[in-house]
Amino acid sequence: NAGVTQTPKFQVLKTGQSMTLQCAQDMNHEYMSWYRQDPGMGLRLIHYSVGAGITDQGEVPNGYNVSRSTTEDFPLRLLSAAPSQTSVYFCATRDSYSNQPQHFGDGTRLSIL
Amino acid sequence: DAKTTQPNSMESNEEEPVHLPCNHSTISGTDYIHWYRQLPSQGPEYVIHGLTSNVNNRMASLAIAEDRKSSTLILHRATLRDAAVYYCILRDVLVENAGNMLTFGGGTRLMVKP
Lengths: 113, 114
Description:
A: 7-stranded mixed beta sheet, 11 strands, B: mainly beta, 9 strands, globular
């Protein structure tokens, strides 16, 4: 059981480039979300989805797009990378029952030069 | 979600119990207390959660004050592998429109000495 799989694990981009961070889960969870974690900080929510075809903004959505065409996948797109987006990105899932714990991937470490 | 306050860091000796405190004086009646931890270079990992009564699982125990304004995560015998940042988070079970948002503060960095 893989749980939550994030790819790639590491990526270096130049300012202005675009890319997609992948997140896949095999737990059939309805809820998925993307967080970013800057050095020495807690996690901040970027976007989330409560089911296929439904997405919404979190605390820091600017510069990022998401889509949810299947239950399993929730990709995060950087439209035009900026140095301020250098961070570690975590994908998380949970079951639809409100008090279930979240399951996190191991993260994608992204550097924007 | 209501705010939590935790010490920035704590130290413990290996094989000894560790008590990690969390203050949440503005907790509402529908807030559950969740604890997550984050080991170096990994994503956060769920530890335990509770509402009013003390809770135990294979990883830890959660002691909740009678007025619910504070709680303590207890690791019964710290190991080197328990060195991590521990986050205390309140989740209002009625707030479904926020999806699965967890509001992470700074957490407590636990250092375990051999």
